[in-house]
């Protein structure tokens, strides 16, 4: 058996998320189906993170194990051919050690959240960003974001469905950037709670629109109470960017 | 009557192009329908350029005339609401002089062509760029592009359906840029022949893949013969960026 690390990109719109679901298509099922079609083997794919329905990925790490002998090139090309027409692509494939695990070996995760800050509805970026019509105060958003960086109890920013043992996480980065008429929020941590990035971005958007002060963000964090959450940002603006592993 | 200049953005995928067609949806018909729904008036929209089926726009200029009195804000918001769910958006609206004409007053047009230079199929950018799997030699493409800049007879790069009086045009800019794993071609001229940008990009792609030398590009230009065209690039990578008018 060879264990393969795959770097995946996908458009989240048609999927219920990464994880296999009974009630709709998932990226995991698409990858497993393509690998099975290529090798005839029952394949189980594991990813660094389980994304929600509608969330995109530009660099998700995953792994599969195959008995069939293949080159990395042939595996990538074969999976990509068989993934059509699903909007999932294998950007790279490389053999890894048998104990390498996309989820459990992962020591860092990076997300990007794209806000399109304009009045006009989205056309080319429809489903690819969260449009907010009111002008955002990026400086205030930066100030509020800085309050969340570090080790905190993120209960407020955690979905009720979160399966993490502890609500305490260390947020390494939460950076707000103006990029043309977009506002990008970059988030990095060893791991995140379920809905954490979208919940933080939702509250940052309230700050950006002047409905919250940065101090309200501090209050929400300190409340350690989901009821203190201002807003959960929609899935369509969120991108899983990169999973980090020890060298 | 007030004449309004509109700046439009659209996703070209579902449209037969700008111009009203009997056999399918057009951006022109969508804009006219929205304006009619808003005012009850028979409205005729004119644009700076007639784009092909599948070609996108991020800053097309157009104009309409309305008897109904409206503010620019209300016109823009109303049209955007009525354009749904078509992927067309009015980015701005402003009143202009009665003799201002989106097409005939235009003194410059800018296009962007996006090539995604990677092996993996496109997911998030599907329909938004032309994917070329073989690595492109951007330096060679630049050398070939430079040969096309200036005043030339562009018959080779002109569709048989082109309605322009003359095949002689002055190409002000044809620049090839590497942007991550994309190659962008920027084209600017007072006006272009039908299919000119896509035809030039198609031949640049041959040069980038080593199938043509820059000298072959010179030969194609000098042939002044459509049969000398190497390749017409697909519509989905092309974006109308900007129309320029005298200050």
From TrEMBL, chains A, B:
Catalytic residues (positions): 52 (nucleophile)
Residue limits of the Pseudouridine synthase I TruA alpha/beta domain?
11-104, 144-246
| Enzyme class, first EC level, given as a word | isomerase
A Gene Ontology molecular function term for this protein is:
tRNA pseudouridine(38-40) synthase activity
Gene name per UniProt: truA
- For binding substrate, which residues are annotated in this chain's numbering? 111
Q: Gene3D superfamilies attached here?
A: Pseudouridine synthase I, catalytic domain, C-terminal subdomain, Pseudouridine synthase I, catalytic domain, N-terminal subdomain
Name assigned to this protein: tRNA pseudouridine synthase A
Q: What does this protein do?
A: Formation of pseudouridine at positions 38, 39 and 40 in the anticodon stem and loop of transfer RNAs.
Q: Which family does it belong to?
A: Belongs to the tRNA pseudouridine synthase TruA family.
Instruction: Provide this UniProt record's keywords sorted from A to Z.
Output: Isomerase, tRNA processing
Per the record, what are the reactions this protein catalyses? uridine(38/39/40) in tRNA = pseudouridine(38/39/40) in tRNA
Q: Which domain of life is it from?
A: Bacteria
**EC number, UniProt record:** 5.4.99.12
Tell me the PANTHER family matching this sequence.
PSEUDOURIDYLATE SYNTHASE, TRNA PSEUDOURIDINE SYNTHASE-LIKE 1
- InterPro entries linked to this entry: PsdUridine_synth_cat_dom_sf (IPR020103), PsdUridine_synth_TruA (IPR001406), PsdUridine_synth_TruA_a/b_dom (IPR020097), PsdUridine_synth_TruA_C (IPR020095), TruA/RsuA/RluB/E/F_N (IPR020094)
User: Subunit notes for this chain?
Assistant: Homodimer.
